[in-house]
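Q: Predict the assembly, please.
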Amino acid sequence: MREFILFSRGVTREFKLNDLPNAGRMDLIARCISTAIFLSYSLRKDVKFHVVLNGPPSPPLTVTFYTNELKNVSPDERNVASHINIAIKNFSVGRKNSEPGIYIEKKSFERLIKEKIEEYGSSNIFYLYKNGEDIRNVKMKSDSVFILGDNKGIPKKEEDFLSRNKIKMVSLGEIEYLTSQVIAIVNYEMDRRGL
Amino acid sequence: MREFILFSRGVTREFKLNDLPNAGRMDLIARCISTAIFLSYSLRKDVKFHVVLNGPPSPPLTVTFYTNELKNVSPDERNVASHINIAIKNFSVGRKNSEPGIYIEKKSFERLIKEKIEEYGSSNIFYLYKNGEDIRNVKMKSDSVFILGDNKGIPKKEEDFLSRNKIKMVSLGEIEYLTSQVIAIVNYEMDRRGL
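A: Predicted assembly structure:
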């Protein structure tokens, strides 16, 4: 399984689809999910995308898109965001899985990472960071987890947590890309290795 | 200059920002532009993105985003699409440059390609196509033009035109990516070479 974990400031309430940027950069979040899960005319197989919403009013919430079960999702930001909205709405009445392949939980970034360390081992988890080791020199397996920050990055406290847990920092070179571009490139680097 | 040319079915009239997919996949177009021109917290320098709109009612129109002049554009699809809408609206009253760095003309895909061949020479123009030569084996200069199709691809007539003009076909491997993902990867491959 290829997994992505996005630390975001996305809001934890329903939001307006006409103004995604002001919902804690829900546009960025939706763009990242779309980039991670879609190929031309198909969904990737065996991909899980987790976005941790740390915005108001009741953070954290973790929303997971699992491609092997997903239905009726389109690549445009508005559509992807609408599914997050549905998940948040249903969670407020206690439902954790209101659409196929989309899950929502009261779960923090750190708890999610801990679970992934147990599942994959910390050597298969990578934090995409400009000063990390060049991805082209890093050994990876098909079972890999990639951690990313939104436009504001991952806070010091959470970065220290990653460091304490020996999560390797991996870089795509000297240029700082949009998070969605990072995801496209990571998928490409993995695809190139046949992973 | 790094240039992109997207053959699209985007509509040539004003469209609703709440339904980009039904405006000839204006979501795809906006996502491609955003991916091509943005980096984290900045615009790339020296990038031109041309989208040829071949949808109804009065095709073709070519809209160009030139990063060295652009202002007030955000990476979300809705924002990028809103600038295309403004360009189309102003073109209907004869204005070809209503916002900084955004141009619109009555120009066809073939005419645009011919201009680029005169400007760069056909050996510096590349058509991204699954059965082309692996991009990692293709020599490129910083002055390069990349041609892409939307979700439906480039029609036979236009493909034949590219072939007659000796435009090289270049591939990213065996996987068929979304056009926006292709753009992220092409930029990355160019960046990696320091171009």
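Chain B touches chain A at residues 17-18, 20-21, 27-28, 31, 34-35, 38-41, 74-79, 151, 172-173, 175-181, 184-185, 187-188, 191-192 (CB under 8 Å). The beta strands of chain B are 2-8, 38-39, 42-43, 47-53, 61-66, 102-105, 125-134, 144-149, 168-171.
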